[in-house]
Amino acid sequence: MENEPDHENVEQSLCAKTSDEELNKSFNLEASLSKFSYIDLDKELEFKNDLIDDKEFDIPQVDTPPTLESILNETDDEDESFVLEDPTLLNIDTIDSHSYDTSSVASSDSGDRTNLKRKKKLPDSFSLHGSVMRHSLLKGISAQIVSAADKVDAGLPTAIAVSSLIAVGTSHGLALIFDQNQALRLCLGSTSVGGQYGAISALSINNDCSRLLCGFAKGQITMWDLASGKLLRSITDAHPPGTAILHIKFTDDPTLAICNDSGGSVFELTFKRVMGVRTCESRCLFSGSKGEVCCIEPLHSKPELKDHPITQFSLLAMASLTKILVIGLKPSLKVWMTFPYGRMDPSSVPLLAWHFVAVQNYVNPMLAFCRGDVVHFLLVKRDESGAIHVTKQKHLHLYYDLINFTWINSRTVVLLDSVEKLHVIDRQTQEELETVEISEVQLVYNSSHFKSLATGGNVSQALALVGEKACYQSISSYGGQIFYLGTKSVYVMMLRSWRERVDHLLKQDCLTEALALAWSFHEGKAKAVVGLSGDASKRKAIVADRMVEILFHYADRALKKCPDQGKIQVMEQHFQVVLMCWENRLYDAMIYVYNRGMNEFISPMEKLFRVIAPPLNAGKTLTDEQVVMGNKLLVYISCCLAGRAYPLGDIPEDLVPLVKNQVFEFLIRLHSAEASPEEEIYPYIRTLLHFDTREFLNVLALTFEDFKNDKQAVEYQQRIVDILLKVMVENSDFTPSQVGCLFTFLARQLAKPDNTLFVNRTLFDQVLEFLCSPDDDSRHSERQQVLLELLQAGGIVQFEESRLIRMAEKAEFYQICEFMYEREHQYDKIIDCYLRDPLREEEVFNYIHNILSIPGHSPEEKQSVWQKAMDHIEELVSLKPCKAAELVATHFSGHIETVIKKLQNQVLLFKFLRSLLDPREGIHINQELLQISPCITEQFIELLCQFNPTQVIETLQVLECYRLEETIQITQKYQLHEVTAYLLEKKGDIHGAFLIMLERLQSKLQEVTHQGENTKEDPSLKDVEDTMVETIALCQRNSHNLNQQQREALWFPLLEAMMAPQKLSSSAIPHLHSEALKSLTMQVLNSMAAFIALPSILQRILQDPVYGKGKLGEIQGLILGMLDTFNYEQTLLETTTSLLNQDLHWSLCNLRASVTRGLNPKQDYCSICLQQYKRRQEMADEIIVFSCGHLYHSFCLQNKECTVEFEGQTRWTCYKCSSSNKVGKLSENSSEIKKGRITPSQVKMSPSYHQSKGDPTAKKGTSEPVLDPQQIQAFDQLCRLYRGSSRLALLTELSQNRSSESYRPFSGSQSAPAFNSIFQNENFQLQLIPPPVTED
């Protein structure tokens, strides 16, 4: 299946200029076609669904699909019916070798075809579609065909076959093979063989272009290897002798081919190779005695369609003189359809052509067949049951007889009529797109083969009559291209790309037709479109760009014909174009027509001015449309003054000076045409200044840059400047920004070295007064920015500096003051400018930092800035304390005390010190380099106690450099008990800290005790709980470092404090408080159970009068809760100990087994020197075997530095394992070896039993194995398998905990030393099953 190319490189290949490049590009095209053909079908499904309708294909709307029988038996409008062919027509079994006799078919009318009745002529749409086909002569091939005929007596060409190579057969039996560059690659056969076999009558190339089949006029068949040029098979018995080969064609199966002889019979050729011998088996598919077959066409599919369900049947279409047949060769021979021609001219040539097309969202093969002037289309489908259904589509009526039918893609067909005229037809609409005369090709006809003249002409009259116009072997299609074989040449034809079709019309000056064709591409109505694919919007955008180019081309041609003077009708046409453009807002087109058509440049400006001037003069806001027109006007004026055409191109050089002068004269006009009496002078410049002052002045600045210093240019510049000053200075309609833009423009012009302009200096003084002394205080920042731009543009030379500074300070233009002070290097005064400017006051810190740190400033300048910053330090701190602190730490670190003295406001001092000392404030200060004295830190802590007491503890945790005693005194002064307790704990006075917390808790409890009834929502009980939790945390943090007596001194007073309120009579305490206090007391008991022995706790509780004198039930809850906790922890301890003991026993068993296990070397040679271990007979050499299986000589390991001395013993490392894992030496600590990597195996040393007995220096190996290294190696393996803490470490930790306090249950309570405990590690996990046993 070949579909039209859709890729851009395909489009480029179709636009080749010379015919010598055609073939090469055509073959490159095929590579793309084979790749994109299936994509093309998918796109066809996607984009052509709207074009495929039931009416086109005569498909009725039915509820159930028709059956095969109903299809085969229904009749059409011409009484032509599908008839299931008699199975006896096919020779299923082997036929008799003499059953090749043919019988003639009577042909009653074989007269002139022009006398036959014709159908109505197809509608001619050539004028709409342009030139659809491009045909080129393949000069290289054509020249070599002629040369071969002259030099080697090859004869005339007779047949052509095209794939990625081109094969041409000749009348003297030669096959010429050409490559993509039209170079002769092979010449197959010889003239002697040609004398024996006759002319080549048919050619076929297989799918992969590796084999060529040649059929000869005397009936022989040869097969050639196209890679080597060797003859593979010479077949002489495939069909009855004495008949010519009319057709020979490969199927998709490379071992299967079909041939058709002049006797009208069809044979299947099966190629086999048995025991190295190539054979060919022939089977007759159709006997010519039942009606001669004169055309065959197997269904070919591209690789991307190889899985199509139809391809497995290997369909073959055959056309006899009376009917066509479609048969399946696989899996078994079967007739699927027959169709008689009906009434037809007996001299007409039967034609067949397959192609895959997309119909109703499915891709299926379609067979086109015809004989005469009617083309029938049959769509072949396969249903779910596996049966093939054939559906007749809309047929095509022609007004000429056909001798060839070719699909060029799924939508376009190319027909050749009997007078050698090509017709390009769109299949779906049946519209004729183009007609091409190809008589110059001098097409080769196959008449002699159909008449079998080489074998005596023993054919029927009917077949001989058909052969008069038979050209089957002269036309071959491949990759969307059609090759035509002439008597002395080869031509190729293909579809033009859409762009090439448009260009072809333009070259012929058919502009209207080219535009119409492009519009049809844009609207998607064009036929045979190549090179346009993808999204519809993108496709339209591409075509639209081309249409714009055509319109410009059209406008150029039309405008060039516009006379300067002549017939008024012609001039009116151009003015009508202008009017049409204006009405449709095509302003660019309007300007283009004026400029190119009439060389008129001023009229477009006048028309645009008339639109935007009235609203600007009235002070109204412009509409969007008017703004667009104003911008176009500015750009148009800029282009004219720069010598460029608008919107594209350049103004002719001879017109550039004239256009510039016209535009300047236009701009400086005193009044406009048809001006009203109220119009102000210089309306055009005034309008542009009001529209966009800055951009208009930029246009003038660019124009002044291009001006040459001739007298006229200087006069124009001065004239425009004078007008600008007169318009803007003498009017109050312009804003300060607009006036500033003008004087900035003037300052830049005056600052040029070659300046010739003159501006009165008093005007600059007036502008300064205007900007610095406004009537109102509006537009302050705008006026300041305008004046700053004026000064930076060079306008400062126009002012007296002292007066400028005074006026800037008066107007509070601090940026102007900064600009002036910086010129005079008065950097200290710039600090005042920043501090006074509310918009930039925070930038003062960066400015001071830059002056003091960046080199380039003198020490005197830095000192003045430093002193000014110190004088304003209070303002800086109040502005931003963090920035001020960072500045002081960076540049005033030695004067911090001076800064503190200057800060009299205590709140400012507190903010400053907090930013300076608290690292949480986010400033980047190196505290070590700062070297702040403790007294400053303590001063900050005292201020913190005053202004933010809740943050004192958090701040102390991050602060450094303060003295504990002095800080404790400060916190006691402000009665911050929690802070005092924290400092005492940090000091080490745990008991003192506890007493403070205990006193605070007691005071809270006393408050609760003396409260009234309404305590349910009172927050005081919450305060008691918070204070108690903090006290418990204090006790827990320090209990690990205290002995038993010291612990009791902490916990029992806390318990007493919680139980004391409960000693009061129950009547004095509300019941709700009693229950809450008991709950809090229980919390204290649970916490102290981890540190105090249970008997001591029970004894203390029972001694208490509240619980001791009451019933046991009152303390039952406390005791049961403590017992539950104890039982849980005791069970947890016992279970853990048992698991660890079992795990330790398992580990020790593995260690013992590893020590006693023997070593098995993997080879009997050293892994370093690769020699056998017994190589050294003359000297002692120990053999080192590792548990990994590697074997070494000890000397070899020593040379590789694989020994480690440890505790007086030599340890070895495996060289291979250590080098592959990047391990240089054996780790002394097994825990240092990375888990999951192969560790160096420890060695087992044994003496070599091949030592020389006579060698006194023979070294004896140790008789006992070294166990320590093996144990370490085994333990390393265990550690890798068990991803967790060492079992020995676990047991050691557990034994230490058990031995220190034998009566204390195992607890997970937090303590300071417990952070180093294995059990406290967040990643600690118990593995309750032993690790897997590893195999060595």
Can you give the helix content as a percent range? 40-55%
Structural category is alpha+beta
Please tell me the overall pLDDT: 75
Low-confidence stretches: 1-64, 66-126, 565-569, 1012-1017, 1065-1069, 1222-1267, 1298-1315
Counting DSSP E segments of at least 2 residues, the number of strands comes to 34
* Number of DSSP helical runs: 47
Largest sheet: 5 strands, antiparallel
Termini separation (Å)?
64 Å
Cα-atom Rg, whole angstroms?
Answer: 54 Å
Strand coverage percent: 5-15%
> Given the C-alpha coordinates, what overall shape results?
flat
Can you give me a brief rundown of this structure?
The protein has 1336 residues and is α+β, with helices and mostly antiparallel strands. The protein has 47 helices and 34 strands.
Description:
The protein is an alpha+beta fold and 1336 residues long. Helices cover 44% and strands 15% of the residues. It is built from 47 helices and 34 strands. The strands form nine sheets. Strands 18, 19, 20, 21 and 22 form a five-stranded antiparallel β-sheet that branches. The protein has a four-stranded antiparallel β-sheet with strand order 1-29-28-27. Strands 2-3-4-5 form a four-stranded antiparallel β-sheet, with helices on one face. Strand 2 (157-162) and strand 3 form a beta hairpin. Helix 20 (736-750) packs parallel to helix 22. The longest helix has 45 residues, at 1112-1156. The radius of gyration is 54 Å and the shape is flat. The chain starts with 7 loop residues before the first helix and ends in a 36-residue tail after the last helix. Residues 1-64, 66-126, 565-569, 1012-1017, 1065-1069, 1222-1267 and 1298-1315 have low confidence and may be disordered.
